[in-house]
Every structure is written in C-alpha cells, then in structure tokens.
Amino acid sequence: MSTIQSAAPPELSPARLVDVLRMMLRMREFDQRALELYREGVMRGTTHPYIGMEAVAAGVCAALRPGDRITSTHRGHGHCLAKGGDPRLMMAELLGRAAGYCKGKGGSMHIADVEAGILGANGIVGGGMGLATGAALASQLAGRDDVAVCFFGDGALNQGIFHEAANLAAIWRLPVVYVCENNQYAMSARADRFTSVPDPAVRAGAYGFPGTTCDGMDVLAVYAAAGRAIARARAGQGPSLVVCTTYRYLGHHVGDPLNYRDKAEVEAWRTKDPIERLRGQLLERRVLTAAETEAMQADVAAEIDEAVAFAKASPEPDPRTLAEDVYA
Amino acid sequence: MSAVETHTRVLTYSEALNEALREEMRRDARVFVMGEDVAVWGGGGVFGVTKGLVEEFGPERVRDTPISEEAIAALAVGAAMAGARPVAEFMYADFMTLAMEPIVNQAAKIRYMFGGKARVPVVFRAQEGAGRGNAAQHSQSLEAWFCHIPGLKVVTPSTPADAKGLLVSAIRDDNPVVFLEHKLLYNTKGPVPAGEHTVPLGVAACRREGRHVTVVGIHTTVLKALEAADRLAAEGIELEVIDPRTLVPLDLAAILASVRKTGRLIVTHEAYERCGIGAEIIAQVVADAFDALDAPPVRLCGANVPVPYAASLEAAALPQADDIAAAARQLMA
C-alpha cells in the first residue's frame, strides 16, 4: 500500500455535505423500494442492493466533474444515482418499461446514461475495467483532462482483465481511478478465501502505481482518498487504486440464502452505518437539525414514490421494438 | 483510359489495407490504431498492414500494446464509447478467443442494452486462415463465432480493392465491426482505386458469371472457385462465383438471385464445416428458394479437425479447387 501524493480535495462545504447526505438517503431508499417491487413480483430478473455501501459511490462522485466518466457493476444503482442518474428513468428501467433509460431492453444490470458519463452498469464481473481504461485513453488522446472511474467489487480483483488493464493504464499513464468496493464477499466467498493478499491495495504496487485503502463506511474518508486519486489522474500522473472497505448489509441479490456469514457480523457492520455517521456529524456540527434530517428523509421517500409512480405509469415496450437498436 | 482507371493502381491486399488506415487517419483525428507490434516491428505490423503509420501519425495514434488481447479489445470498446474510433488489431484471429468477453458481451450488446443510446464505433481487425503451416492455434477461420452474435458486423474481403473499400466503410460505421483478413491474401495484387473508395457493408460481388452452378466462397475459397471455374469452362460447365464480402449483414438477395438462375449451390469456406456460415447460407437458401434447387446444396469446408501442421495434412483439411470442380461436376451429372 502506498499513499497518493496529490493534494487532498477541497473540503466539502456544509451545503455540499447536505447534498451528499441526501444522495446517500436517495440510494438507500431507491434500493429498498427496488427490493419491495421485486418481492411484489413487479420487477423481473434480480436486483443487487447497494445498501450499506452508499458512502463509496457518494464519496467518489462528490470528487468528480460532470464531464468525467464512470463504469459501474451489477450492483450499480448507487453509482448511477451518484453520477447524476434520474431515479424515475432508472426505476422505469427496473420495471422494464418503455420510458426507462434503456427502453426496457437492459434492466437493472445495464442501466446507462452515456451523456451523463455513466458508461453502464455491467453484468460481467470486471466488465467495466477495460471500458473505463479505454474511456481514459480516449480522454488522453483527445487532450481532455477528464477522468474515468471504474467501480468494481473485491470479486473482480481476480479477473484477468484487472491485471491487463492496470498494466496498460500504468504504462500509458491513463487518467483512470480503480475504485474497489471491498464489501467482503464475492457471492458466498469471503475475500480472504480467494484473494491472495489481505489488503488488495498492494496489488497496485505490482503495476507501479499507488494503491490506498480507506474506510468505505465513512463518506468523507472516501471523498478524501478518491479525491487525491482523481486529482492525480487529472494532472496526467496516471492511475491509482482506491480500496474502500465496506459491507453489503443484504445478500448478493434478493435470492441469496445468506448461509455463509453470521448475523453478529452483519450487526457489527450496521453499527458503522455510513448514513447515520454523516447524519450524526451534521447534527453535531449544527449544519442540520433533527427536524431537517427527518424532512429530508421524507423528501427523498416522496421522490422515490414519484419515481415508482412514473415507472408504473409508463407502458411496457411494444414487442415491435424488439429488433430496434441492435445496430446504429 | 477512363478517368477512373487513371486513378487505379495495382496494390497488394496488405498495401490496400494500409492505404485505408492512412486515409481514414488523415480524414478523422478520432481514428487510432492499437495492437501488438503495429508500430515498431518491421516498420509496422507483422504482415505490414500498419507499415509507416507511426511515422506519419506518431505513437499516440499508432499504439503498440502489450500481449493483452482482452484489454486491447476492452479498451477499444471503452474508447469508442467515449468518442474515439479505434481500430484494434489482433495478430491472429485465434488470439481473439482471449478477447471474446469484451467483443461478445460488451461491444456487441452495449447499444441494444442501453436502448439505442450509445454507439460503439470500433473495428476489430485480425487475419485468419490456413495454408502456411502455422498449425492449429494460428490458422483457424473463426468468422462463424462472430456471425452468431447480434450486434456485430463481420467483414471478409478477398481482393485488394475490397480490402480498402470495406475497411474504410468499417471504420466509418458506428457499430462494432469484426474485420477478418486472410494471411495468404496479403501479397495478392489487384487494381485499387486511389483516394476515396468505399465498398458498402452488405453488398455481395459476383466474381464470375455462369449459368450452371452457384459457388459462394469466402477469402481464399473465392480464388479457388475461380480456378475451378476456369478448368470447368473447358468442359462446358459454368460456375457463377459469389463473394458475399460481408457475412453480417449478408447479401442473401444476391445469393438467392444466383441460385434461382443456376438451380445448384456450393458453399465453400476454410472454417470448420460444423456450424459454419455455409450451414447458415444453405439453410436460408433452402427456406427461401427450395423450389429453385435442382439438387441438394453442397458444403465444401474445413474438415472438423484442428488445422494440422504437415503440408499433406493441412491441404487435406482445406477445400481445394479440385474439390469444387469435382462437386460441380457431380451436381451437373
């Protein structure tokens, strides 16, 4: 593990901290509602809840500019919201409706908004690594200073593309930041069963760029670590690896038997809840009052209600659109 | 001499591809080339296709890569999504098996999965085919793998002029295009128009007209069919040789029109017979022109074995002009 030498990002103003809290609440509300819709039988396929991990996407994206790009994962709703995704279009996509981001052709695992810099959730573990690195290459070739961030889980650390892409990013000094969401489990596999090193950040050293580990349950710690890595990338100094130590409170997906971890472990992680942590800090600093945080919670719930209503009101895709969009 | 002819020179297939890359890179700053040994080795490319490009366009746009095929493909896809127009080269089509994830799961599907709100203008170039004793891992023809995947276009030029015109069209296309060359064709020569020259994707070429048997070939089997046609002409048997040029989109109409004229069909390719593109072409012809067929269609394809090394074995594994001639005689018997 090595430190990233670039300057820390500017401290977030009280107003931006409030925005970050609101974003994390939005992510949690969105995924809770997605679970309900799945259980009601309104949603098909599956959903991979981001609940517990909100600080990672919120902290990283708080350090990004609108022109920057991200690649996401199968557990991608949080990333999409944090990068500016519209919860109404996302929810409509979850329900497979014509008004969804992908006109009902992608679903939860393929939500994308290329214009907003969201190069897609991805159903292939590690599938975004090469794409983000390639987006960084396009930025470099075009002489732009925008940055690509690749979100991936600890399970993707052992895909070959991680090593191929990291090596290329290093030799070409590409403006890419690899953000590993170490949520401790790749499906049933605890990270220490299948990853050869206890701290994945050391793997960056093998490719000659810095890797750092931060508390992924602390949005300010994520913001600081990611902000340094993003600044380094933007300055043309090349890639970094930021490992965020976090936890998924729920199963891999809604059908997870959860026979591989005990409840005490889950409860211990829940005491580190990233939303409660930031809420507590803002109350303590008197940035917000208790009444204001409650109102914010209600606002977010209403926003997601509206997203669900929007989704349900949207028509199913016309079967005649089946063969559209295969080719440009 | 017509104006067109004064602007047509004789080039090799390799030179024609090089000209397409050079002209497109001059025309559009977003176009760049990446792959193993495309810049330094021998002045550009193991087969000379990228020769001299690094001198004109520099190492940023003509990028030698490490031996990381999955990353070559995946970075090209990501760069294409972010506004570049990459031409990614795989030294051998066999090596594309290491890059199937980004080609099949990402490039081919992104536009559809995203509801038509993304473009992936990337060309995956590679050379395939047997005939040089490169044995099982450097001689395969894998076009059927890519034809199977919706979202990809698949191009197989057999002449220098098509090599240029189809590569220009592939680079300008907003879809992922798998552009498959043949290693034995690189040194073949033919007239190639100078300057702007495009061949649309999805339009077959009739290489020779004939009344008796339609032969659909790909790459080298187009040349072998023409050779067979020359021999059979003396016997009064006329072959009509159709070169689809692109397999996706496939100009089925041109093949059907020919079969309706001849009533007999041979499809020949180097790729393994089992589940090859020949099976697809014949299935479509049988479905659409059953009544026009005077005899069951014939496949002359690569044997269903790994491509062997020894010259005698390799020749036996591939369809030859003699095989095409013999099959045509049998169809006419």
Outline the secondary-structure elements:
The complex is a heterodimer of chains A (328) and B (333).
Chain A: H1 14-40, H2 54-61, E1 69-71, H3 77-82, H4 87-94, H5 127-142, E2 148-153, H6 160-171, E3 176-182, E4 185-186, E5 189-190, H7 191-194, H8 202-206, E6 211-215, H9 219-234, E7 240-245, H10 263-270, H11 274-284, H12 290-313
Parallel strand pairs in A: 1-2, 2-3, 3-7, 6-7
Antiparallel strand pairs in A: 4-5
Chain B: H1 3-6, E1 8-12, H2 13-27, E2 31-35, H3 53-61, E3 62-64, H4 69-81, E4 85-90, H5 100-113, E5 123-128, H6 143-147, E6 153-155, H7 160-172, E7 177-182, E8 189-193, E9 205-208, E10 213-217, H8 220-233, E11 239-243, E12 246-248, H9 252-262, E13 265-272, H10 277-289, E14 298-302, H11 311-317, H12 321-332
Parallel strand pairs in B: 2-3, 2-4, 4-5, 5-7, 6-7, 10-11, 10-13, 13-14
Antiparallel strand pairs in B: 1-8, 6-12, 9-11
Helix pairs in contact in B: 2-7, 4-5, 8-12, 9-10
Describe, in plain words, how this protein is organized in 3D:
The complex is a heterodimer of chains A (328) and B (333). With 328 residues, chain A is of the alpha/beta class. Chain A has a single domain, classed as Thiamin diphosphate (ThDP)-binding fold, Pyr/PP domains (Rossmann fold), CATH 3.40.50. Helices cover 44% and strands 9% of the residues of chain A. Chain A has helices at residues 14-40, 54-61, 77-82, 87-94, 127-142, 160-171, 191-194, 202-206, 219-234, 263-270, 274-284, 290-313; strands at 69-71, 148-153, 176-182, 185-186, 189-190, 211-215, 240-245. In chain A, strands 1-2-3-7-6 form a five-stranded parallel beta sheet, sandwiched between helices. A two-stranded antiparallel sheet of chain A has the order 4-5. With 333 residues, chain B is an alpha/beta fold. Chain B has two domains: 7-193, Rossmann fold; 205-332, Rossmann fold (3-Layer(aba) Sandwich). Chain B is 39% helix and 21% strand. Chain B has helices at residues 3-6, 13-27, 53-61, 69-81, 100-113, 143-147, 160-172, 220-233, 252-262, 277-289, 311-317, 321-332; strands spanning 8-12, 31-35, 62-64, 85-90, 123-128, 153-155, 177-182, 189-193, 205-208, 213-217, 239-243, 246-248, 265-272, 298-302. A seven-stranded mixed beta sheet of chain B has the order 3-2-4-5-7-6-12, sandwiched between helices. Chain B has a five-stranded mixed beta sheet with strand order 9-11-10-13-14, sandwiched between helices. A two-stranded antiparallel ribbon of chain B has the order 1-8. In chain B, strand 4, helix 5 (100-113) and strand 5 form a beta-alpha-beta unit. In chain B, helix 2 runs parallel beside helix 7, helix 8 crosses helix 12 (321-332) and helix 9 crosses helix 10. The radius of gyration of chain B is 20 Å and the shape is globular. The N and C termini of chain B lie far apart (44 Å). The mean pLDDT of chain B is 97. The chains are: A alpha/beta (328), B alpha/beta (333). Chain A binds chain B through residues 69, 71, 100-106, 110, 112-115, 119-120, 122-124, 127, 129-139, 141-142, 148, 160-161, 164-165, 167-168, 171-172, 324-328, and chain B through 30, 32, 60-61, 63, 65-66, 68, 70-71, 73-84, 86, 101-102, 105-106, 110-119, 150-151, 153, 173-175.
